[in-house]
Amino acid sequence: MGIGFNANEILLMAERIEHNGARFYRRAAEVCQTDEQSRKALLELAEMEDGHERAFAEMREALGEQASKPSTFDPEGETAAYLSAMADAHVFGPDFDPADIACDKSPGELLRMAIQLEKESIVFYLGLRDLVPPTSGAEKVEQILQEEKSHVAMLHSRIAELG
């Protein structure tokens, strides 16, 4: 028997990843002794992640019944625990220390770091895409992928603005 998820479960995971990202960027702005421009860039990245989290929450709220229907029998709630663990292990896990990667970066380097993390998210969702059957809201995973790609494009334009 293969593993399958529904769009609701994937969107919950996407929301958690964005929440973790916002927390990471805010923590980096707090602990890093950087110049004001870098601190501002970190806080803007946190706000961007907040917006992504809201977008995914809105997508999830608009789901139909079929896309929210559990894909497997799970009386113990193991699917939710598994998805939370996957989200926390992805990109911005709780043990991801901002001081290790963000404190010595210029605003441009911070944006390039954010682009790399967004690209990792794209790869992550590409791997999940085949685990959501069409009847369970597979098109929502495609929407997540498009949203993540737009984040990369937006970050690239921000780098261009820096000169």
Q: Which structural class is indicated by helix and strand composition?
A: mainly alpha
Quaternary organization: single chain
Overall tally of domains: 1
Question: So how many helices?
Answer: 7
The end-to-end span amounts to 52 Å
> CATH topology, anyone?
Ferritin
- The percentage helix is over 70%
Number of strands: 0
Structural shape:
globular
Over all CA atoms, what is the radius of gyration? 17 Å
Order of helices and strands: HHHHHHH
Query: What is the name of the CATH architecture?
Result: Up-down Bundle
| Residue runs with pLDDT of under 50 for 5 or more positions | none
Write down the CATH class.
Mainly Alpha
What portion of residues belong to β-strands? Answer: under 5%
Could you give a short account of the major beta sheet? none
The averaged pLDDT comes out at 79
Question: Can you walk me through this structure?
Answer:
The protein has a single domain, classed as Ferritin, CATH 1.20.1260. It has 7 helices and no strands. It has helices at 7-31, 36-61, 65-68, 78-89, 98-101, 107-129, 138-162. Helix 2 runs parallel beside helix 6 (107-129).
How would you summarize this macromolecular structure in one to three sentences?
It contains seven helices and no strands.
Topology:
Elements: H1 7-31, H2 36-61, H3 65-68, H4 78-89, H5 98-101, H6 107-129, H7 138-162
Helix pairs in contact: 1-2, 1-4, 1-7, 2-6, 6-7
What key attributes describe this structure?
globular; mainly alpha; 0% strand; 163 residues; single chain
